[in-house]
Amino acid sequence: MVISRADCCDREALKRLKARYCYGIDQQDWTLWRDHVFAPDASLTVPSTGKAVAGVEAIIAWVTDQWVDKVSVHRALMPDLEIQSSTTARGRWAMDDRLYQRSAPGQPYELLLHGMGYYDETYVRLDCGWRILTTKLIRQHVEHAPQR
Predict the structure, then answer these.
(1) CA distances from 100 to 31, 77, 145 (A)
(2) Is residue 121 in a domain?
(3) Residue-range definition of the domain harbouring residue 125
(4) Model confidence pLDDT, tens digit, residues 67-116
(5) Which pTM was predicted?
(6) CATH code: domain of residue 21
């Protein structure tokens, strides 16, 4: 199988896009998500919670609500990317995320959960570049911190 130079460039752009996704959520940089990560009509699905959110503003609002007084560390690894056309692509990423929360104000952050699984995504190329159109977070295993 021969991969074209354009496909290689698109794959690298998609890797950078996913890096911006992880950086944006971990830094709670919702402007980055709005302007450089998601398509305006993007959707986010988390089957383990039964949550499905449509539209970039709704995604940001839901995640912001979930992230009150929390810190996260996200990793997206081993991308399996398929360029379908000059404007569409699909991807699957192994994922690992950790969510931390304080037990009380002023206390250090403690592990709340450690999730492992993958993201299934579709991408669309807009005039401003590649953006996430759909993302589905599949957590295959979750370790919760012991209750204190």
Answers:
(1) 22, 21, 10
(2) yes
(3) 5-68+77-94+114-139
(4) 888 999 999 999 999 999 999 999 999 999 999 998 888 889 999 999 99
(5) 0.93
(6) 3.10.450.50
